[in-house]
Automatic annotation (TrEMBL):
This is Exocyst subunit Exo70 family protein. Residues 3-91 form the Exocyst complex subunit Exo70 C-terminal domain. InterPro entries: Cullin_repeat-like_dom_sf (IPR016159), Exo70 (IPR004140), Exo70_C (IPR046364). GO terms for biological process: exocytosis; protein transport. GO terms for molecular function: phosphatidylinositol-4,5-bisphosphate binding. Belongs to the EXO70 family. It holds the Pfam family Exo70_C. One of its GO terms (cellular component) is exocyst. Component of the exocyst complex. Keywords: Exocytosis, Protein transport, Transport.
Length: 113
């Protein structure tokens, strides 16, 4: 399962992990002002949907394994997502937290075939 997670989901969460590291997230702009890169969440969302859509038709007949896969994906994705949210300003956090439910819903649709 480790190889599956690495191949399928590391690519998805890498957008958030890279953005959360302070030296990548803050860059000096013109006139020396620092600004944040707003694209990581969009890149994550696009990659997440692409991965889910490609795996939506996969069939895992064993309910125990199917649930184990979903839980592993959820834990991996939500950890990166929450760590990224911690780097955002408080005003943006509440809007992004609402998206957590959307992630959970999409993951729960995986492997039904």
């Amino acid at each position: 399962m480790r190889d599956y997670m690495s191949v399928s989901w590391e690519r998805v969460t890498s957008h958030l992990v890279i953005a959360a590291s302070s030296h990548k997230r803050l860059r000096p702009g013109l006139l020396g002002f620092f600004h944040t890169n707003a694209r990581p969440l969009q890149s994550f969302d696009s990659s997440f949907n692409e991965t889910c859509n490609s795996q939506m038709q996969w069939k895992v007949p064993c309910p125990v394994l199917r649930n184990k896969l979903r839980v592993s994906i959820w834990e991996h994705v939500i950890l990166a997502y929450r760590l990224y949210l911690e780097t955002l300003k408080q005003s943006a956090v509440s809007a992004a937290e609402d998206s957590e439910w959307g992630l959970q819903s999409k993951i729960n649709e995986l492997f039904e075939g």
